[in-house]
Design a protein that fits this description.
There is one protein chain. With about 70 residues, the chain is an all-alpha fold. The protein contains three helices and no strands. The radius of gyration is 15 Å and the shape is extended. It starts with about 20 loop residues before the first helix and ends in an 8-residue tail after the last helix. The model has no long low-confidence stretch (mean pLDDT about 85).
Length: about 70
């Protein structure tokens, strides 16, 4: 018999023009030490993954992700 453990996480979506500029402050506010970017092939083909990767690399120092 398996024991079940519920997992619930509050989801917040920020959208709008240049909303990704808030990413460093949002992660810093959460006390994040590492960031993981999950995606799919469609977003990768559209170039969105590469844009986000470059953005995160650009702000790596701001996020203390060395």
């Amino acid at each position: 018999m398996q024991a079940l453990s519920p997992f619930m996480q509050r989801t917040v979506i920020y959208s709008g023009s240049n909303s990704r500029a808030y990413i460093p402050d949002l992660f810093r506010g959460l006390g994040a030490k590492r960031v993981v970017l999950f995606s799919d092939r469609g977003l990768e083909k559209a170039g969105i993954v590469e844009k986000q990767r470059k953005f995160l690399n650009l702000h790596q120092k701001d996020l203390d992700l060395n």
